[in-house]
Specification:
- The structure is a single chain.
- By secondary structure, the protein is an all-alpha fold.
- It has one domain.
- It is built from 4 helices and no strands.
- The longest helix has 14 residues, at about 40-55.
- It starts with 11 loop residues before the first helix and ends in a 10-residue tail after the last helix.
Length: about 80
């Protein structure tokens, strides 16, 4: 189901998980739904987080390498 034009919508994976669990999502934002699903299905939330980290491992590695080379943009604010 496509979101109406101008509507950001909710992650389809979250919607599928909510539907599997019988969670009513009316009036929930994606953040509220994500937090609720973490409470009622922590294993599902952990699996989703594990997959995300796996799918984004290369970008995370590149980001960390860039930070290691250049430092953080906020480094000049540090007093220590």
């Amino acid at each position: 189901m496509d979101a109406p034009e101008g509507d950001i919508g909710i992650d389809p994976e979250l919607l599928a998980q909510a539907q599997r669990l019988g969670v009513l999502i009316a009036g929930m934002s994606e953040t509220q739904l994500r937090l609720h699903l973490q409470k009622v299905d922590p294993a599902g939330a952990e699996e989703r987080a594990r997959r995300w980290a796996e799918e984004n491992a290369e970008a995370i590695k590149d980001h960390n390498a860039r930070i290691e080379r250049r430092g953080l943009i906020s480094d000049h604010f540090r007093k220590w």
